[in-house]
């Protein structure tokens, strides 16, 4: 009796496996990077560039580039699939790269496509190209030493892990996009001597790409989003206040009035609405700093020297924040999210359009509190 | 049909297990999508709606226990017979049975839809339905004690899923709940009502009461069960609304399942696959208990042996799973069940209470007159 039952169990288990479609790894083309552009030949269509992994015994090349056009992304994928003997699957897309032109026209529709498909991971990274996505992916791919998809993914992930740029996964972008009173941002990839590199952080107004901020500013922006843990930053501070504490080493440029210090920043920036009538905000930058390197030797004998450095660093960071704020205000995009604070104070009544009108008029008072914690093993 | 049920001691259960029975039945397919429905009504203050709903359910449970206590060992079918007589009583009991069957059906088709969207788009609903119904029939034929065992085991085997919510929980954006207390009371109540499909399940108490051995000790597990379910729905609602923002929640179906997409391990990247499969363990106790409730009711009222009715029910259910696979059809069915269930589960006990009390008074007076005479 028991044997009979066991027998039936085994049979059912074997038979049940055929109830679902089987997908063999060898027959799949696993898309891991996708570029989306407006097609050059057919301006009303999209062009996708796919970088896929294929596990085929006949070729040594594991990754391969395909492209296709269509009115929808899925259609374009289908068309690309016609050029490949593998079934292309989108479940492992790690990075989606948008061309400059399409990003300026707005990308939320394509992001919704991604979210709609339950198979697509919401943790994929997004980025924009300063030319077309196709160019970056194809040129990068022709350089056979590296797989461009993995390279770009690693590049952005690395910066993200270092806290140098804010999180830029699909989920983060849509989250910020749908929050009233904040605008999203994505990293910008440029081509520099045939090697792609991370050049800036692109700022969006709504879902439209409107301008860039530098990577240093991206760190400052990241501090307004979350607590940053020792992200590196290089600052320019004037020499004069530190003159008497400097060692007698010769700087590269003796005539310069400034010196450079490289520091690790730990802390965050918290903002508050201080004056609802005049739209006045206060952002408090509270950071611990490690001194990593200076362009000239600074002898930190006692606390007094540390205080001077702290003060100078504070001024430099404040200046940087003010430039960042002026830049985004000119773009009329609010990546820091002052609108969110205003919405909360304003009984939840704020629309994106209202904030677009108000944002250019707000004023922000940056208060920087720097605390020099460590400076390595020498004084 | 007897009003009171004679239960042999070898098939009765300890009151302690009521906790698992009620939570198993309450937490089912509803939880996967409930934050969205609450949010659509109550907005950022959704958590207050969950609080209101849970407190209301505690009151309903109190009333249900109070009604049951007026009898020696009766279930809802016996009470109906006692209050309304044979014809009307059986009619109302039949509504209960239909409700059980309909809920069972909705659970089946919802889960099949989720599996087809998340994992196997080409899977035939017939196969999925067959698999689940075979399991349900098998365990229901095993009797009440087997079913309670299943509830207990699957409770433990599924609650680890909560650990996977830690990752989205630490990323909660508390700004989404501010400003608080802005939603007017009617909307909060509507939000509380939106939880009704999720919180269905307490009605099983009306059926299972005669099988409880130690009736004195049943208050604690029953109330704890409702509080536990309320707490879980509260947690998922808060995490969902904090992690996504309103606009996203309003547009996403099965928001809870989407939350599991954000947890990643180096050995498994896509936990939503695991979770959808694991959710079968949440569904199985549900359909077992509902199938038992329906067939037990049929046995009580129409004297049809449970073995016959289980098989007789399984076949139309299977055909139904096969035929109904469009999202809006399923939503329509759930809406209808929602309406019926709302009145039956949350309002009806309050109507029953005065009738039971009047009947009892009347009986006592009659007995008193008899004694005097």
TrEMBL record, chain A:
Keywords from UniProt, A to Z, are: Germination, Lipoprotein, Membrane, Palmitate, Signal
| Localization per Swiss-Prot or TrEMBL | Membrane
Q: Which residue ranges does the record assign to the Spore germination protein N-terminal domain? A: 21-190
Under PROSITE patterns, the record lists: PROKAR_LIPOPROTEIN
Q: Where is the signal peptide?
A: 1-20
One GO CC annotation, please?
membrane
- InterPro entries according to UniProt: GerAC_N, Spore_GerAC-like, Spore_GerAC-like_C, Spore_GerAC_C_sf
* Pfam families reported for this sequence: Spore_GerAC (PF05504), Spore_GerAC_N (PF25198)
Record domain Spore germination GerAC-like C-terminal: where: 201-376
Has UniProt tagged this entry with the keyword S-adenosyl-L-methionine? no
Query: What topology in the membrane does the UniProt record assign?
Result: Lipid-anchor
Q: Which GO terms describe its biological process?
A: spore germination
Which NCBIfam families does this UniProt record tie to the protein? Answer: spore_ger_x_C
Q: In which family does this protein belong, per the annotation? A: Belongs to the GerABKC lipoprotein family.
Q: What PANTHER family does this protein map onto?
A: SPORE GERMINATION PROTEIN B3 (PTHR35789)
Name under which the protein is recorded: Ger(X)C family spore germination protein
Instruction: Name the lineage.
Output: Bacteria, Bacillati, Bacillota, Bacilli, Bacillales
TrEMBL record, chain B:
Q: Which GO terms describe its cellular component?
A: membrane
Q: Does the keyword Transmembrane apply?
A: yes
InterPro entries recorded: Spore_GerAB
Top-level taxon: Bacteria
Compartments annotated for it: namely:
Membrane
Kindly list the biological process annotations in GO that this record carries.
spore germination
Task: Name the species this protein comes from.
Answer: Oceanobacillus jordanicus
Q: Which UniProt keywords apply?
A: Germination, Membrane, Transmembrane, Transmembrane helix, Transport
Gene3D superfamilies per the UniProt record, alphabetical = Amino acid/polyamine transporter I
Per the UniProt record, which residue ranges are transmembrane?
Answer: 15-34, 46-68, 88-112, 118-139, 146-166, 194-212, 224-244, 279-298, 310-334, 340-358
Q: What is this protein called?
A: Spore germination protein
The family line of this record is:
Belongs to the amino acid-polyamine-organocation (APC) superfamily. Spore germination protein (SGP) (TC 2.A.3.9) family.
Q: Which PANTHER family match?
A: SPORE GERMINATION PROTEIN A2
Provide the membrane topology annotation. Multi-pass membrane protein
């Amino acid at each position: 009796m028991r044997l009979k039952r066991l027998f039936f169990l085994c049979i059912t288990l074997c038979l049940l496996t055929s109830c679902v479609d089987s997908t063999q790894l060898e027959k799949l083309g696993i898309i891991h990077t996708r570029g989306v552009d407006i097609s050059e030949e057919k301006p009303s269509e999209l062009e996708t560039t796919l970088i896929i992994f294929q596990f085929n015994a006949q070729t040594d090349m594991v990754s391969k580039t395909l492209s296709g056009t269509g009115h929808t992304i899925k259609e374009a994928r289908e068309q690309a699939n016609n050029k490949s003997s593998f079934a292309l699957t989108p479940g492992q897309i790690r990075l989606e790269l948008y061309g400059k032109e399409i990003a300026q026209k707005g990308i939320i529709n394509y992001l919704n496509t991604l979210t709609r498909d339950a198979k697509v991971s919401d943790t994929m990274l997004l980025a924009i190209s300063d030319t077309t996505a196709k160019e970056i992916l194809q040129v990068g791919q022709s350089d056979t030493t590296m797989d461009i998809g993995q390279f770009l993914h690693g590049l952005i992930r690395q910066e993200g892990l270092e806290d140098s740029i804010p999180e830029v996964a699909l989920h983060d972008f849509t989250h910020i996009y749908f929050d009233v009173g904040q605008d999203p941002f994505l990293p910008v990839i440029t081509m520099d001597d045939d090697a792609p590199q991370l050049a800036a952080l692109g700022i969006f107004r709504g879902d439209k790409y409107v301008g860039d901020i530098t990577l240093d500013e991206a760190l400052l922006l990241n501090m307004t989003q979350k607590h940053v843990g020792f992200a590196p930053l290089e600052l320019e501070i004037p020499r004069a206040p530190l003159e008497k504490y400097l060692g007698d080493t010769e700087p590269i440029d003796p005539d310069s009035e400034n010196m450079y210090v490289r520091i690790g920043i730990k802390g965050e920036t918290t903002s508050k609405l201080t004056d609802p009538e005049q739209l006045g905000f206060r952002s408090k930058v509270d950071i611990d700093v490690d001194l990593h390197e200076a362009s000239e030797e600074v002898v930190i004998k006692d606390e007094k020297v540390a205080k001077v450095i702290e003060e100078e660093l504070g001024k430099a960071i404040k200046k940087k924040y003010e430039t960042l704020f002026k830049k985004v205000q000119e773009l009329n995009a609010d990546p820091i999210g002052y609108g969110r604070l205003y919405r909360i104070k304003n009984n939840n009544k704020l629309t994106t359009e209202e904030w677009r009108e108000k944002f250019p008029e707000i004023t922000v008072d940056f208060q920087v509190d720097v605390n020099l914690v460590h400076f390595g093993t020498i004084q | 049909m007897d009003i009171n049920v004679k239960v042999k001691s070898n098939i009765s259960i300890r009151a302690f297990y009521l906790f698992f029975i009620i939570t198993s039945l309450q937490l089912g397919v509803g939880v996967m999508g409930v934050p969205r429905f609450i949010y659509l009504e109550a907005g950022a203050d959704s958590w207050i709606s969950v609080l209101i709903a849970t407190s209301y359910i505690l009151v309903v449970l109190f009333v249900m226990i109070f009604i049951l206590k007026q009898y020696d060992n009766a279930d809802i079918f016996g009470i109906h017979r006692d209050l309304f007589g044979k014809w009307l009583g059986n009619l109302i009991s039949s509504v209960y049975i239909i409700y059980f069957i309909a809920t069972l059906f909705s659970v089946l088709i919802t889960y099949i839809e989720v599996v087809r969207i998340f994992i196997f788009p080409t899977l035939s609903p017939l196969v999925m339905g067959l698999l689940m119904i075979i399991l349900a029939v098998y365990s229901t034929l095993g009797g009440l004690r087997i079913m309670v065992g299943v509830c207990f085991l699957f409770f433990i085997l599924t609650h680890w899923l909560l650990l996977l919510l830690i990752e989205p929980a630490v990323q909660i954006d508390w700004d989404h709940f501010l400003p608080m207390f802005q939603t007017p009371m009617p909307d909060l109540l509507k939000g509380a009502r939106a939880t009704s499909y999720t919180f269905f399940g307490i009605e099983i108490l009306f059926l299972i009461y005669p099988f409880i051995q130690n009736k004195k000790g049943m208050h604690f597990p029953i109330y704890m069960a409702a509080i536990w379910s309320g707490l879980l729905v509260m947690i998922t609602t808060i995490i969902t609304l904090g992690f996504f923002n309103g606009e996203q929640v309003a547009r996403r179906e099965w928001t809870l399942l989407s939350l599991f997409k954000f947890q990643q391990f180096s050995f498994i990247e896509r936990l939503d696959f695991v979770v959808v499969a694991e959710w079968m363990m949440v569904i199985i106790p549900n359909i077992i208990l509902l199938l038992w409730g329906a067939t037990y009711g049929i046995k009580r009222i129409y004297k049809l042996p449970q073995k016959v009715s289980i098989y007789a029910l399984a076949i139309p259910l299977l055909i139904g799973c096969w035929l109904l696979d469009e999202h809006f059809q399923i939503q329509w069915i759930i809406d209808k069940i929602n309406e019926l269930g709302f009145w039956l589960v949350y309002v009806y006990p309050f109507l029953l209470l005065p009738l039971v009390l009047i009947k009892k008074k009347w009986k006592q007076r009659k007995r008193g007159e008899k004694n005097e005479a």
